[in-house]
Design goal:
alpha+beta, four-stranded mixed β-sheet, three-stranded antiparallel β-sheet
Amino acid sequence: MQEPFSWTTLSFPMGRVFGITIRIHWLFPFVALGWILHVAFYKAPDGFTLPEGAWIDASIFMLILFLSVLLHEFGHCFAARATGGDAHEVLLWPLGGLAFVDLPARPRSHLLTAAAGPAVNVFLAVGAGLLLLVCEKQPIQPIWNPLPNGFPSRAEKKIDGKVILIDGKATLEVTLSPWSGDDIPLPPYSLPVWLARVCWVNYFLAALNLALVGFPLDGGRILQASLWPSLGYRQSMLFAVFAGFGVVFVVGLYSIIQASVLALGLALFIYIACQRQWVVLETGGEDGALGYDFSQGYTSLERDPVQAAPTKPRVGWWRRWVQRRTAKRIQREAEQRESDDRRLDELLDKVHREGQGSLNDEEKRFMKRVSDRFKNRKD
């Protein structure tokens, strides 16, 4: 796994589930707390303030977003295992999640792994949407607006333009639309409101990953894997990278129009990922980055490094940074191969002594992954 920035390693573990380590980047709680405090103390220049308790809605949004992104990344991990790869770790950070997986060098494996994450969000959104049809007397529609302001939040109840007060405080409600009839005001913590929020968050995540078709988002990876059989890995990845630059323009323009710091951060992240991947491809490599660990399946560009002639201009800082990262990755791969070889010898000895049935599921997946790697080398 190639991480987006060196400080991505500043994270803390939250445990292991199904053999996958869950890590939280330190920026995730930092940004979440900052967003909640922003909502709590928001005041427009004209004196407008958000309804009392709006910070609770922001907290609920962050909670649902955290769980939905985690399930999204588990979708990538389980798909990787189902297609002959393996999954090691999930990192959650402010702009989403990163799944650390090893994949065979096959387009189908990469396509299914990339598509599995958004598929989880679609499943959750559809499931919550179907429950909205039966949780009230009237079937309720999901929130169709996928933009950030579409999240169903509380508002002051008004009749004839006047705020309804109880004990001197405004009455708060969340308004949802049925499939037929007038809008329905509901308490902020009622079951339909929870379902509408779960539906919207997962709808938002699926739309974000599939509508923004460019590297390194899932839509771009699906595009790259779809073009791989006809164009080859290199050309298909270049196509996805250039599509990613187009996404940078769209997201960057949106961040300026809406004055959204997170959208600007996403645009910068996509730009850095695409720029780095472009440099790697132009120097002759086929290395994956920022989302999935492709190191087990592809030939590394650095195994036969080309030394620059003394008469050539000095290598720029960006290229030197890439070369340093490359050298560290090669060293890690060599150490990992040595560790895998030692463990493989131990497992083969165990099979010789106790039989194939003595291996657990994780050991079987390990032996399959290592054997697939040897096959790729021979091919």
